[in-house]
Amino acid sequence: MESLADLAQLVRRRNTVDREIGTILGRPVHAGHFGEYIAAAIFGIDLHPSAVHKGSDGYFTDGPLAGKSVNIKYYTRGAGLLDMVANVDSTVHPDYYLVLTGPKSAAISSKGTHALWNVCFVYLFSSGELLAEVAKRPVGIGIATSVRKHLWEAAEIYPERRNPALPLRLSPEQFAALSLFSPAAG
């Protein structure tokens, strides 16, 4: 019973913090809402008013991607999996997937691990190019779509920009803002 009492006390503290975070996000405290808020603030994305908009979370408002739709994903660990729009109707797919992740890890059991809210990597995928690459393999497109390692590496824009052909280059201010959520920052 002592561990239950300790857990209850920690949950009360967490609820206080979650209320404060929820006030900032303007939405309930879920990892997805956290990622969308961070991405919108850093990358100039106008989020749809509804969190359940079909196919995308919003649109880039400036820079080389202005007007392009984006589906934002946030994962506490980078395990090589991406939740993609499963509909084959091309009008439902976003122009881009912007993926923020915590540290890289194998897709293993979560037992004994922690799901800390950090941003260690950011990836930008062109939806059309990614769909074409994934279609070359016999994998389903949808929740937890397996994306090969070389595609993740080619899409990385933070902490390193590995592909000079990517249309998005981080400004020093964007890099510094992302670094605030690095495990090293705390």
Protein architecture, described:
With 186 residues, this protein is α+β, with helices and mostly antiparallel strands. It has one domain (31-185). It has 5 helices and 8 strands. The protein has helices spanning 2-25, 31-43, 127-135, 149-155, 172-179; strands spanning 45-47, 58-60, 69-75, 81-82, 96-101, 121-126, 145-146, 156-158. It has a 6-stranded mixed beta sheet with strand order 1-2-3-5-6-8. It has a two-stranded antiparallel sheet with strand order 4-7. A hairpin with an 8-residue loop joins strand 2 and strand 3 (69-75). It is globular. The two termini are 32 Å apart.
Chain-wise SSE layout:
Blueprint: H1 2-25, H2 31-43, E1 45-47, E2 58-60, E3 69-75, E4 81-82, E5 96-101, E6 121-126, H3 127-135, E7 145-146, H4 149-155, E8 156-158, H5 172-179
Parallel strand pairs: 3-5
Antiparallel strand pairs: 1-2, 2-3, 4-7, 5-6, 6-8
